[in-house]
Amino acid sequence: MYRRSAAIAEPVILWFEDRKIMAAPGDSLAAALLAAGVSVFRRAPVSGAKRGPFCMIGNCFECLVEIDGQGVVQACSTEVRQGMRVYMPRGQSPGEGD
Amino acid sequence: MNAVPVRPEVAVVGAGPAGMAAACSLAESGVEVLVLDEQPAPGGQVYREVEKVHEQRPEDLAALGTQYRAGLELVRRFRHSGAGYLPRTSVWEITAASEPELAIGTLHDGAAQMLYPRHIILATGAMERPTPFPGWTLPGVMTVGAAQTLLKTSGLMPAGRIVLAGTGPLLYLYANQLLTAGTRPEAILDTRPATSMGALASLLPALAVQPGALLRGLGWMRAVRGSIPVSSRVTALKALGDERVASVSYESAGQSHELQAELLLVHDGVIPNTWLAMAAGIQHHFDQRQACWVPDVRGVGRTSRESIAIVGDGAAIQGAEVAILQGERLAHEVLGQLRGAKGPVLPTPVEPPALRQQRLLQRFLKRYFPPSAYFQLPPDDSTIVCRCEEITAGEIRKVAALGCVGPNQAKAFTRCGMGPCMGRKCALTVSQLMAQVHDVSVEEMGHYRIRPPIRPITVGQLADMPMTGEETGSAADPPGKFASANSSSSKR
Ligand code: FES
Does residue A54 line the site of ligand 1, with CB under 6 A? Predict the structure, then answer.
């Protein structure tokens, strides 16, 4: 879906649902996941339909993911961190449970 | 490094072209100004990460073009202006006019804080117009703006079968950027209606004053049309797929078509991001031609609240060049208000010729690329309008027909606009659909009531907020956590 214009020099390593992801320092979590070929970030709470990032500027809230120790956040507005453990949200709203 | 000033004279929300220009001008006149911005670096969406791209990714800089590169100059001026700067900071509330004190609620790194400026300048910019159509919630359907953000922030280029749909200058600009970088989309599905007389009539005045910009634009359009198949007057656009988008179907010139696509990028122009201004109780009206809500503005940027001004694309969509010129002029207006009779009398500078020229150009662009009818009133009742709560156009039409009088009541009946995005992606559509059913103007139909907090904030974050009322707030933060615009620039 996307490719990087430059190779990653010093990768930041993180996990999404137990899949290892190599990110570039300074990437947003959403950019890192998209670049790694992840397109489904969560399920819509009502129908369970699969969803992924749409706007990339913090407005649509389609990129919600759950980070260990941080709760549910917008992946497009969260910077990657070494060793981050990321999951599809398990029934929380953003801001809940920190 | 400074601690964050809890009572700056002026707080500016947004470090895009308008916010940076206003802040530079105020700081250079000796005003204590603090700029709050959600991004890690100044630039707004238009000049997003221009410093980083300039330093680290010369090939992306070349693809992004001259207008983007021009942002570097303003960002550098901002870094040296002496303006205070809080990156990675979102604003979730501005106190109501009835409150005793003007205050801004901020959130930085999970910590909430109230700031008490004397004056606020909102420079919250634009957002892409909602483009509801069947299948737009499938993974792999994104906005053109989103793809451009990925290019600026992380150097991501779309790969595989890419289709662009919708219309607007940004769509063609992005298509041209892709071609420059050696990536060729499969098709552009253009939803623009036939060129109106109004567009033709506004072309000549624009051409007279801005021939360069227009010819450059025509140059891209030609380059794009020469390399990418463009379908005109596209309607009945649908994204299809089970788990994610696999193909796109549409009609053009009376014929149905289907194309394979793994990435469908949509765009239909931009509208002011009014969420914070609305939450602050500033009066807005509906701009019929642009089909969007805009704040009521007098002078350069005075709103219905004396101590809150608004400037840039958040006030009216005019693009980055106008935003910079207006930011400078607004700084004079605000300075006059702050210093009153005591200070030097600074007349608001007369409208510079450059501003008038830009306005003529913008007027032509708006008439050439009007909002697409197909996205304004989705004809297919199964189209999801509210993405968060999955409420369809048919459900909105139904509650309106059953006597639901306005968007706030529709919210109560259907839950539309009650999800995490707080209506950012459906407000416009819901008002337009309901106005259509009731056969009244969108202005009469009204907008969702927007109440703070406009960003998610937890009770815990509120409870942990330092008591900043007595000027001790800055000490509550570790020194060096906040910095001036200059010192936070790591490598320049
Ligand atoms: S992608 Fe829209 S909020 Fe993150």
Answer: yes
User: What is d(CA A19, CA A16) in angstroms, rounded to the nearest whole number?
Assistant: 5
Q: By CA distance, what is A62's nearest residue in B?
A: B388
> Which chain A residues are within 8 Å of B244, Cβ to Cβ?
39-40, 50, 52
Domains, chain A, ordered by start? 12-87 (3.10.20.440)
B119 shares its domain with B246: no
- Give the pLDDT confidence of A11-20 residue by residue, as tens digits: 999 999 989 9
Helix (H, G, I), strand (E, B) or coil at A94: coil
Domain presence at residue B65: yes
* Cα–Cα dist B208/B485, whole Å: 39
For residues B189 and B203, membership in a common domain is answered with: yes
CATH of the domain at B403: 1.10.10
Rounded CA-CA distance B435/B447 in Å is: 11
Question: Residue B37's Cα: distance from chain center in Å?
Answer: 13
Mutate to test the pocket of ligand 1, among A34, A51, A56 (most ligand atoms within 8 A of CB): A56
For residue B157, give its domain range.
Answer: 131-268
Contact A71, A95 (CB under 8 A): yes
Q: Within a domain: residue B429?
A: yes
Residue A56 Cα: closest atom of ligand 1: 1
Whether the CB-CB separation of A5 and B60 falls below 8 Å is answered with yes
Do B263 and B137 share a domain, yes or no? yes
CATH number of the domain to which B81 belongs? 3.50.50.60
**Phi and psi torsions of B167, nearest 5°:** -165, -175
Find chain A residues with C-beta within 8 A of B457's C-beta.
95
Domains held by chain B: number? 3
Domain boundary among the residues B242, B268, B294 is at B268
B16 in Cβ contact with B44 (< 8 Å): yes
Q: Dump pLDDT digits (tens) for B296-344.
A: 999 999 999 999 999 999 999 999 999 999 999 999 999 999 987 665 5
pLDDT tens per residue, range B191-219: 999 998 989 999 988 888 888 888 888 88
Furthest CA-CA distance within chain A: 41
Q: Which residue has the higher pLDDT, B2 or B229?
A: B229
The answer to whether the CB atoms of A50 and B156 lie below 8 A apart is no
Question: Chain B contacts of A26, Cβ < 8 Å?
Answer: 40, 52, 153-154
Interface test with B, best of A29, A43, A59, A96 (most B CBs within 10 A): A59
Residue in B137, B145, B262 nearest the CB of A51 = B137
Phi, psi of B101 (to 5 degrees): -130, 140
Q: Are residues B88 and B26 in the same domain?
A: yes
Q: Answer yes or no: is pLDDT of B492 > 90.
A: no
Cα separation, A11 vs A2, in Å, equals: 17
Is B458 in contact with A98 (Cβ distance < 8 A)? yes
Determine the 3-state secondary structure of B109 from DSSP. coil
Exposure string (b/e) for B126-142, b if CB count within 10 Å is 16 or more?
bbbbbbbbbbbbbbbbb
Cis peptide preceding B453, ω within 30 of 0: yes
Which chain B positions have a beta carbon within 8 Å of A76's beta carbon? 149
The reply to whether B139 touches chain A by the CB within 8 Å rule is yes
- Write down the ipTM of this complex: 0.95
